[in-house]
Amino acid sequence: MLSRTAETVYWLARYMERMDYVARLLEVGLRMASMSANSGLTEWESAIIAAGAQRAFGNKYGVPSPDTVVDYLARDSDNPSSILSCLNTARSNARAVRTALTTDMWEAINVAWLEARTLGDEDFRVDRLPATLDWVKRASLLFNGAYNNTMLRSDAFWFTRLGTYVERADNTARIMDVKYHVLLPGHEQVGGLVDYHQWTAILQSVSALRAYHWVYDGRVQPWRVAELLIIRPEMPRSLRSCYDQIITYLDELGLHYAGRQGECHRLAGELHARLKYGRVDSIFRHGLHEFLTDYIDQTAKVGDEISALYFA
């Protein structure tokens, strides 16, 4: 496969996964704002921080408000990671490598793009936003199901899977880190009602609330949420599960390209080992926010090294 084609397929998958992530991030903001005592300002600001868009957003809008945050993260063409920008970029990439995709993959992307063109201002109002976010998540799921069920297991499939899981590895950590940026009201203690509902909102945003109750009995607890979403391999959006997949497809590509391995394999293996043998009590002892920030930085390096090895 040409490196240009491999890169386009890889980033196509990343943008479709990122579109889904931004929808889930906005969903967290909506849920947390609904239980907030401060008009939701901190919750919406946390969504901008978790999206890595604080400076760009501040330059354009200044102080965050529900309407401006939704507009910037959902449909602002100046934001390359907004939901509609991600979908537009994904479709452009899909057109560029149309022959490398299955018919079902192309139709999943193209139908979502056509449906997005029918969305109006009212679909992005805060009161109408949940229905729009549900549509985004369905479009992403349809794409994932299309390529997983129809692609030949070859390098095109492996690069697509790799793009999905590198992006998801970053995104799950960012959604978890939203909680760090949300300040509890002064009268609430950690472990209180607001804390409980905020952690529940995190679980709901990654479709993991039912899984949590299957794995754990009793009340939602921060360390258990962290354990489920960081080191439990059976949770498909956990950091550990993402790196299980990243290692699998890096190994497949290394073998396919005659042992072509590099720094991305070493960095991914190191992160995978930390997740495989890590303990949640140790993570909390050293700081959950610090762990997630370092993990996000290291995952970005893995992505850079994949690009340097296979796409240069």
Helix content: over 70%
Query: What ranges have pLDDT less than 50 throughout 5 or more consecutive residues?
Result: 183-188
Structural class computed from helices and strand pairing: mainly alpha
Q: How many extended strands?
A: 0
SSE order: HHHHHHHHHHHHHHH
- Alpha-carbon Rg, integer: 19 Å
Estimate the global geometry from the Cα principal axes: globular
Keywords summarizing the entry:
about 75% helix, globular, mainly alpha, 15 helices, about 300 residues
Can you describe this structure in just a few lines?
The protein is an all-alpha fold. Helices cover 73% and strands 0% of the residues.
Describe this structure in words.
By secondary structure, the protein is mostly helical. 73% of the residues lie in helices and 0% in strands. The chain has one domain. It is globular. The two termini are 13 Å apart. It has helices at 3-33, 41-50, 54-61, 66-74, 83-96, 103-116, 129-150, 155-181, 193-205, 209-215, 222-230, 239-256, 263-277, 280-286, 288-311.
Task: Give the secondary structure arrangement, pairings included.
Layout: H1 3-33, H2 41-50, H3 54-61, H4 66-74, H5 83-96, H6 103-116, H7 129-150, H8 155-181, H9 193-205, H10 209-215, H11 222-230, H12 239-256, H13 263-277, H14 280-286, H15 288-311
Helix pairs in contact: 1-2, 1-5, 1-7, 1-8, 1-9, 2-8, 5-6, 6-7, 8-9, 8-12, 8-15, 12-13, 13-15
